[in-house]
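Hey, weird one. I pasted the SagB-type dehydrogenase domain-containing protein sequence into the form twice and got a warning about non-standard characters only the second time. First submission, copied straight from the form history:
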Amino acid sequence: MSPPPDQDDAPGGRFLLWSLREDVHVEADAGKGAVILHSRWGDESVPHPAPQVVDALRRMSLGPVSLENAVTDPAGRAELDRLLGRLQHLVVRSLGLDQERALLSVVPLSRQARFEPARLSPVRALRMSRFAVLHAEDGAYSLESPLSLHRVVLHRAEAMWLIGTLSRATTPAAVLDGLPSPMPAGEALGYLVATGMVVQAEPGGSARAPVFAEDTDPALVTWLPQDLMFHTRSTLGRHDRDFGATYPMGERWTVEPVTKPATEGGYVPLPRPSWNRLIASDPPLTAAIEGHRPTRRFAREPLTARQLGEVLYRTARVRSLVGSAGGLTGGLASDRPYASTGSAYELELYAAVRGCPDITDGMYHYDPLGHRLEPIDMDAVDLCELVERGRTSAGLATAPPVLILVTARFRRVSWKYTGPGYALILKNTGALVQTLYLVSAAMGLTGCALDAADIEVTTRALGTDWRTESCVSGFALGHGDEEPAGPPAGRRPANDAAWGELATELLPKPSA
């Protein structure tokens, strides 16, 4: 069966246009009689192609073309069709009202991308996928979805009108009936369904209450669209964006300093622990791992400056500076007790203190290079609100004497990384929080990570711009309240559950 014609000159007709991705380079290898297509996914060799096929590939590398105009010989067209079927991951399929400009284009994002326009029933309900995201890019609108291996570029206002009809369930017939001007809406809907940007109702459903698979699929119902998009764009395989250490800003912007500039005067120096004392008295690492237990109840016992200083020193101080300032690769980096991708160490610690006898109640920034607390101007009411929000976020029964807020200076990471930057920040945050848990346990203290932070409240309190530095985590620190002995009700031992109790015997008892 021959393929449908590439153009229909009737009013509202369509032009089927073909091109290669913009990053595909066509090279003729005269020595081997082959054509090589270079792409982000490697090289594709086309041995001994017909001259018309070579010419069509070259024209497709320059922009959208009609294959009927590019190859007139039936044998050459059949060869080209077979080739383009094999190279679907390199081929952009466009649908146009004319040959001058496309209505929309379907761009493959992965080597596994395959595309075949869907044939639609005029009465089967459809709607925009709840996972589809529309954004402006390079002078056009783009539709993307974490479920799709294609991007749909909307070139003309007519395409945007079509998208506007699909926010709720409708039918192709209803869309065609409402057309404000002639355009190939039926074919455009077929393109959108084929890419997954538009979904069709399940067969046999009610016309008034159609059921869509993405709303009932167990693999999808628990995903929020933004979460699934974040997952696919911060990993490789389902997009074509730049990824990794690309230094996207080049030398246009200076890198933020390795630590925030220190304030002048008024700071609180913190005691530093003794290496010899730690070596002599610290419990084994296994005891800290097995024995630490997050707590929801804090005792009224205060935290001393010595204890707070030791926690911060052992978890977050700058141990050394690496490199020299300036240059594309970002100048100084640092070395600290917890792991951080690329040694960016973008995380900042702030301590809300309300119960340290030798530190005035208030909000402080921790200077990891000078090992000191820098006071932040904040009245008592705002401080209480901040601590109370932290308490409720962590589900704590009582407020801790110290609430540590962890913020990220995002540009310490984004100047270097494209794609995984924010995901790396969250991983670094996890490494810091785990270090806080283990050090606290080793000292006979207890803590509890905050499940979430109110970035509006914290940035207002800290005086930061949330776009460049805002809260990503928190940690309540203090002495655990006495809890009932034995495992919690309902807990069933599995693999050496008794290790926790054995480890507790090796951990120091809380003391100031």
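That's the output from the first submission. The warning seems to come from a hidden character in my clipboard, not from the data itself. Residues 7 and 15 are 4 Å apart (CA to CA).
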